[in-house]
From TrEMBL:
EC number: 4.1.1.48
CDD domains: IGPS
Record-linked Gene3D superfamilies: Aldolase class I
GO MF entries: indole-3-glycerol-phosphate synthase activity; phosphoribosylanthranilate isomerase activity
Organism for this UniProt entry: Natrinema thermotolerans
PANTHER family in the record: INDOLE-3-GLYCEROL-PHOSPHATE SYNTHASE, TRYPTOPHAN BIOSYNTHESIS PROTEIN
Top-rank taxon, per record: Archaea
Stretches assigned to the Indole-3-glycerol phosphate synthase domain: 28-239
Pathways involved: Amino-acid biosynthesis; L-tryptophan biosynthesis; L-tryptophan from chorismate: step 4/5
Protein name per its UniProtKB record: Indole-3-glycerol phosphate synthase
């Protein structure tokens, strides 16, 4: 794991808070909904596979969107989302494990737990279909991938560069997210995905994460090899706080590869 001193202050603070939170009681046992199946179903239906994120706020968000997480998730599914991501981090993203549980009960697509899980006991806080593991923040990635699978989770291993991709593949990751947001500087560059994607083995489910805000961005990430896109801010629209989440999602799930369109 990188030294904390190399990270943006907000990310250092997120990691400190994650270390201070207690893990779950007992060991969860999940009967997970398959992400690859959900992505294939979206493709078959003519939708771009989008994992839409319930993200009330974040250190870089323009504001907070306090709508009910279930209503947000249902609106995202109505807009064609293939899966839902729910932030469960409480202190910097206003998320909660309870919100994830309620969302998972209310929708029938796979639900990703988006949090900063650093140790095995942090997995046992709540059931989800997918669990995020951020390669740069964990010491024993292979052990955590195995521990997540033992509980029934599909681990989504997040990387930011080619070295981290190699760790992820060596750890046995089958679902990899390339985060366009550099968690050291909090800068977002879509080139990140384009530089890492060519190195990803064909049998890995590849997700482009962060900074995707327009149909043109969707097409750009798809052309670079994304099987799915993880989108939070552009759908939540923290700035106005009241735009139509279904329409925001539909705009991305219906992005067609039309040459020359720059909307
Ligand atoms: O989103 C942030 O501000 C953030 C800050 C510090 C650490 C992580 C952060 N985001 C986590 C994510 O990976 C995103 O929520 C996710 O990829 C969606 O990104 P976006 O579509 O850009 O909201």
């Amino acid at each position: 794991m990188d030294s904390d001193t190399e990270l943006a202050p907000a990310v250092r603070s997120i990691l400190e808070a994650a270390r201070a939170r207690s893990g779950g009681e007992g060991v969860v046992d999940v009967d997970a909904r398959s992400l690859p199946d959900a992505l294939a179903a979206a493709e078959a239906d003519g939708r771009v596979p989008v994992i839409a994120e319930v993200k009330p706020t974040s250190p870089t968000a323009a504001g907070t969107r306090a709508d009910d997480p279930v209503e947000l998730a249902q609106a995202m599914v109505a807009g064609g989302a293939a899966a839902i991501s729910v932030l469960t981090e409480p202190t910097h993203f206003d998320g909660s494990p309870e919100a994830l549980t309620r969302v998972r009960e209310a929708v029938d697509v796979p639900v990703l737990r988006k949090d900063f899980v650093l140790e095995e006991d942090g997995m046992d806080v709540v059931e989800a279909d997918l669990l995020l593991l951020i390669a740069r923040f964990v010491d024993d990635l292979e052990g955590l991938v195995a521990a997540a699978r033992e509980r029934g989770f599909q681990p989504l291993v997040e990387v930011h560069d080619r070295a981290e991709l190699e760790w992820a593949i060596d750890a046995g990751a089958e679902i990899v997210g390339v985060n366009n947001r550099d968690l050291a500087r909090l800068k977002v560059e879509l080139e990140t995905f384009e530089s890492v994607a060519p190195e990803v083995p064909d049998d890995v489910t590849l997700i482009a994460e962060s900074g995707i805000s327009s149909p043109a961005d969707v097409r750009r990430m798809r052309e670079a090899g994304a099987d799915a896109l993880l989108v939070g801010s552009a759908i939540m629209d923290h700035g106005t706080g009241d735009s139509d989440v279904t329409e925001n999602t539909r705009r991305l799930t219906r992005a067609e590869p039309t040459a020359g369109d720059s909307t």
